[in-house]
Every structure is written in C-alpha cells, then in structure tokens.
Amino acid sequence: MEDAPNIVIYEEDFLTRALLEEWLGEAGYGVRVGNRCNPGVDDACDLVIVSVYMPKNGGAQCLRDIQEAHPDTPVIAISGQFRPGLSAAGATAQKLSVRQVVAKPLTRQELLESVRGIIGS
C-alpha cells in the first residue's frame, strides 16, 4: 500500500488549523503542523499550506522562510487578504512564488480541490 501524501500546515489560528487538519485527514492525507518560527526543522513533505498575513506581519518574509525550508515543494497560500474569485494560479500566486492562492474563508471543497489539483489523491 502506498503512503498517503504528507501535507504540512502553517496556520497560527487554532480553529482554522484544526479545521484544515480535520478536512485533510478525513480525505486521507497525512497532516503535520509546521512551526512558523522555525520551519527549518520540518521533515520532507508533498505539499505545504501556509496562511499568509499581509502586509504588516512579515507575511512575505515568513513565506520565503517556509519555502526555503521546503525547497521544490509546492505551496498553497491561503489568506483573508486574497479576494474571493482571485485566479488560483494567477498574478498573486506568481508574485508570491506559490503554486496556488485560496481566499479565506475557504470551504472544504475549495481546499480539497486545490490539494488534489496539485498532489492528487
């Protein structure tokens, strides 16, 4: 049996993080919570989901640190600052150097469609 894809979540809000863990776990993914303050200690994974706080909380720098800790790993950025209907792989995603962006609040379906579109399962 093949191992389930592993996803690391960087989300500071407890309720949002718990919801993401629940949705992804129920869909059969292995889920770990990353340490935003020290992303370099995380193990390899298949996908990173990071909540981006922009612009005041150093969201862009935090995102770069996480990307450096997970080189060549696709990233989905989620944020309440993204507007609904934003092109998932458009200019904002390119500017942030992420595979996809998803606006908060997000639905289970939006999350799983984004994840499946990148890593399958």
Considering the chains and any ligands shown, give keywords for the structure.
121 residues, alpha/beta, Rossmann fold, five-stranded parallel β-sheet, 4 helices, 5 strands
Quick synopsis:
This protein has 121 residues and is of the alpha/beta class. The chain has four helices and five strands.
Topology:
Elements lengths: L5 E5 L3 H13 L3 E4 L13 E5 L7 H11 L5 E5 L11 H6 L3 E4 L4 H12 L2
CATH fold assignment = Rossmann fold
> Which consecutive residue ranges, at least 5 long each, have pLDDT under 50?
none
Number of strands: 5
Report strand %. Answer: 15-25%
SS summary, helix count: 4
CATH H-level homologous superfamily name: Response regulator
CATH class: Alpha Beta
Account of the 3D structure:
It is a single chain. The protein has one domain (6-114): Rossmann fold, CATH 3.40.50. With 121 residues, the chain is an alpha/beta fold. The two termini are 13 Å apart. The chain contains four helices and five strands, in the order E-H-E-E-H-E-H-E-H. The protein has a five-stranded parallel sheet with strand order 2-1-3-4-5, sandwiched between helices. The longest helix has 13 residues, at 14-26.
